[in-house]
Amino acid sequence: MNVSDLFKPLTLMHGPAMRNRFMLAPLTNQQSELDGAPSIYDQNWIRQVANGGYGLIQTGAATVEAGGIAYARQLGVHNDYLMVGLREMASSIRDGGGLSAVQLHHGGHRARPEVGGVPAPASSRTLNNTRALTTEQVERIRDNFIAAARRAELAGFDGVALHGAFGWILSEFMSPLLNDRDDRYGGSVENRARLTIEVIEGIRKATGPDFQIGWRLSVERYGHQLEQLREITACILDRELIDYLDLALWDSAQVVREGAYRGQSMLSVFTSIPRKRVRVGTAGKIMGAQRAAQLLDEGCDFVLIGRAGILQSDFPLQVMDNPLYDSPALPVTADYLRRGGLSERFINHMRGWPQFVVPGSP
Ranges for the NADH:flavin oxidoreductase/NADH oxidase N-terminal domain (predicted)? Predict the structure, then answer.
């Protein structure tokens, strides 16, 4: 384990290399405008992390269509008028020396009507009084993912990352619990993965040869079966459909508790898959330099920094200066986050996370 390895460049199949092995995770912060336009707070935050030493910076989840919104003040990439603010974000990241990606998102059955969302379940049994998407509606959503990626490219981003985690629409279609369809998007493992693969293939055809595609995958909850997700992932990696896989683990050290991989680390289930030229990284309680370096030894090509990046926006630079760097202990005060450059909107969002902000902290 050598912390200096974190600062070696990482080539990707398409486009430029990451200058190091640090990727800023897509961080929900609820600070955009109500219509999804990047706010001054979004721009300030992006400028801040752009100067933080990351190899690649992902935006927070951005809606690919207005009805897919899942929470208030969510960033949007569903309309051309949003590109003005997106161009500014891409430019800030480029000026800071890192690569950039818009995370593409649709809430699926978890879209929230109270903020303008239209729930779009794969199955009619998931929500009361809500019919499953028709095949034509699934195709519309697929095409809107592709159009959003094209928008991101025109705005100057190096790539996009598909949000295929946490029960959002791509994750939902993968789940045998949430997807009981009898069309070509349901039934077999292959059919349930079809929406994700068609989105990836469509983006590759619609964008230039240097455009990068990432895919965020989670394995917990929402009826997912680890063995099936590994099968789908193995297919996507074998076909080299993506540039990088982002494993969204709540804890990068977690151990599988049941099934064929019981007793193994969750991470090893995926790092053991032949990956050809696809890069694989993980998120999950990576709070210090030593743990980040250890994950390279455990088979990762890069690490995703989430909570540690909120606590210290220049986490990579801190690690560069101090190979024993560890994040401040949680919870922290709201004033600590203010001093670190977070907006009140961002801080209020973090108050909803367990044990992140000291309760009652003004």
Answer: 5-319
What amino acid occupies position 31? Answer: Q
CA–CA separation, 316 and 289 (whole Å): 9
Round to whole Å and give the CA distance between 57 and 161: 10
- Beta carbons within 8 Å of 134's beta carbon, 6+ residues apart: none
- Using the predicted structure, report yes or no on whether residue 1 has a pLDDT greater than 90: no
CATH 3.40.50.970 fits 3-327, yes or no: no
Strand partners, 212: 159
**Helical H segments across the chain, by residue range:** 40-50, 83-95, 135-154, 169-174, 189-192, 194-206, 226-238, 266-271, 289-297, 307-311, 315-321, 334-339, 344-351
For the stretch 247-297, pLDDT in tens is: 999 999 999 998 899 999 999 999 999 999 999 999 999 999 999 999 999
> Per-residue DSSP letters for 288-299?
BHHHHHHHHHTT
Rounded Cα distance between 104 and 141, Å, is 12
Q: What number is the average pLDDT over the span 19-43?
A: 98
Residue extents of the structural domains in the chain: 3-327
Distance of alpha carbon 120 from its chain centroid, rounded?
Answer: 20
pTM for this prediction: 0.96
Cα separation of 50 and 339, whole Å? 18
Q: Which residues contact 9 (CB under 8 A, 6 or more apart)?
A: 17, 18, 19, 20, 55
